[in-house]
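Appendix C: a fully annotated inverse folding record. The material below is reproduced so that readers can follow the format used throughout the book. The structure is listed first as tokens, followed by the designed sequence.
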């Protein structure tokens, strides 16, 4: 990571901080458009991501980061975008009811009559028994499809090796829960 950026954030170099903030702002707004985030939300997310990276600089978490400043900043922003998308999805069903009459798109229906297989039910049941950090790790990896490097950047892990071992422990725990159900319920 660019050490002069880290130093500026740590030492409250307002002149350089303003430059850094401005340099990536519009690019982040453009980046966030592919997630269908409202521009006002994109601006809030960028502000929050920038503050988070500043906190990481002050606390020394950026010392051994191998990515560029931009990659790290956008990684934090992407995580915040995912959180905003979760908010959107919880509001979506309400909004769909309100705006259904105005819709100028083809309605997509999902067949919910199909039941989950026994294996899917087991996975869902025991996944819920994992800790929040393991649920987050496995969701980012297998559901969102992020690489270990992306997860490390996003979640503030030291490096991708830490992510790999954490993911391995989480999978092992999940497998043990599924294999030994009598010891877990």
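Designed amino acids, in order:
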């Amino acid at each position: 990571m660019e050490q002069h950026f880290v130093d500026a954030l740590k030492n409250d170099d307002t002149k350089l901080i303003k430059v850094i903030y401005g340099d990536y702002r519009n690019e982040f707004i453009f980046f966030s458009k592919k997630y269908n985030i409202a521009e006002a939300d994109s601006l809030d997310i960028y502000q929050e991501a920038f503050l988070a990276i500043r906190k990481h600089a002050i606390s020394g978490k950026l010392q051994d980061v191998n990515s560029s400043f931009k990659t790290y900043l956008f990684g934090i922003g992407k995580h915040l975008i995912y959180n905003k998308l979760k908010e959107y999805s919880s509001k979506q069903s309400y909004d769909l009811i309100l705006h259904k009459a105005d819709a100028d798109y083809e309605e997509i229906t999902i067949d919910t009559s199909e039941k989950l297989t026994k294996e899917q039910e087991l996975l869902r049941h025991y996944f819920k028994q994992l800790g929040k950090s393991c649920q987050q790790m496995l969701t980012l990896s297998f559901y969102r499809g992020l690489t270990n490097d992306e997860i490390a950047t996003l979640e503030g892990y030291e490096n991708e090796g830490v992510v790999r071992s954490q993911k391995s422990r989480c999978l092992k725990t999940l497998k043990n829960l599924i294999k030994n159900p009598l010891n877990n319920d």
